[in-house]
What we know:
Layout (H helix, E strand, L loop, with lengths): L2 H6 L15 H6 L4 E5 L2 E4 L4 E4 L2 H4 L8 H13 L11 H13 L4 E7 L2 H18 L7 E5 L8 H6 L3 H4 L9 E4 L5 H4 L15 H9 L4 E6 L2 E2 L5 E2 L4 H12 L2 E5 L13 H5 L5 E4 L11 E6 H7 L19 H16 L2 H17 L7 E7 L2 E6 L8 H13 L1 E2 L1 E3 L2 E4 L7 H18 L1
Helix pairs in contact: 4-14, 5-14, 15-17, 16-17
Pyridoxal-5'-phosphate binds next to helix 6.
Amino acid sequence: MPASSARAGSPNDLEAFWMPFTPNRAFKAAPRMIVGADGLDYIASDGRRIIDGTSGLWCCNAGHNRAPIVEAIRKQAGELDYAPPFQFGHPKAFAAASRIAALAPGDLNHVFFANSGSEAVDTALKIALAYQNITGNGTRTRLIGRERGYHGVGFGGISVGGIVGNRKLYGGLLTGVDHLPTTYNREQQAFTKGEPDWGAHLADELERIVGLHDASTIAAVIVEPMAGSTGVLPSPKGYLQRLRAICDKYGILLIFDEVITGFGRLGTAFAAERYGVQPDILTFAKAVNSGTVPMGGAIVRAPVFEAFMRGPELAVELPHGYTYSGHPLAAAAALATLDLYRDEGLFERARAIEPTFADAVMSLRGLPGILDIRTIGLAAGIDLEPRPGAAGRRAYEVMVAAYEAGAMVRVTADTIALAPPLIVDEAAIGRLTGIVANAIRTVG
Length: 444
Ligand SMILES: Cc1ncc(COP(=O)(O)O)c(C=O)c1O
């Protein structure tokens, strides 16, 4: 029998699962296996409690295995497992959409459901293009993203995204895409808590891009209000306001990708609220149901939605959608999660504890090899000096050392990201940052 089929019969076989964004061989040689969760902690396969310093993958904002959410999913599974969202509906998808829209600012009040952040982004980009098309602006086909932006892994998302490693293997991508420069500048912004003072003028690069391509060719601009996956890069003060003003001047739609910032990460329901800037389309996913069941979506302003609600009544207004758009389990989980966020005041709690979190993370300044620390809301990025000729190795070693010492942190390149669940308290913040500090010292 070939070795591979022998392995396939083994319950402990790790071969078949091709893990995403993971060095598969290194993981499988020394797996970090999670078998349970409870509140702020994960439970590892060896029984250890691991404090969750990253809300899973920026998604479990309510903490883990919260009883009301678990119960809602259980109940829904026994009541209605699945209903098609094309031509049919079920009540909880409508209820969840209303609740999500009610949290979004202004007239962002129509929700198109997808199942992930990547699908949410592709949905938003397609709505933007279709909107320009049906409103007589069919020449507006360009999409503008930003360097160091992360918008998931669909072809739309990687095209407007600005992380080279996620783009370079996949051919020509979407045509007609351009990018704003990143808002990050270490010399000007190092060790800032909250929004950096420097960098609003970088929004004016959109004027340059309009000058190059002409506004009549540009459909939409997409940015994260706080770039999370690329290492926690908050928008500089005034930047988003300036971007909004330039978009208005030229009839360009503004999309905020709030897949990470949505549902309390920055101390408000959406970052749009924190900054007082309303985009035309806002994407969400992850924390909408605290990461329990895949769900994402795009929230669309009334005038954009209404532009589609014309024409023959039996015509499908937007030929787009997913088998699992508004899935009953995801919708039930979202309703229970949004109740919990409201009843426990978790967005306000995040806002209140932001200074404590910022001080604790900033106290790591001065440890070996730290080049910068950024904090905003309940998110922080810690840049380590790369080892010569081995980019990413140092942060990877810190992640492994932290896990062995009882904390889950996330790394991208040589940046460590922290984003604990919104139920975190001062003692847990101390526990988390203490483990991270020791890991940085140990790794050296
Ligand atoms: C801003 C942003 N957009 C999109 C995505 C993609 O989400 P998903 O992994 O659910 O496809 C992410 C994931 O981290 C994200 O941070």
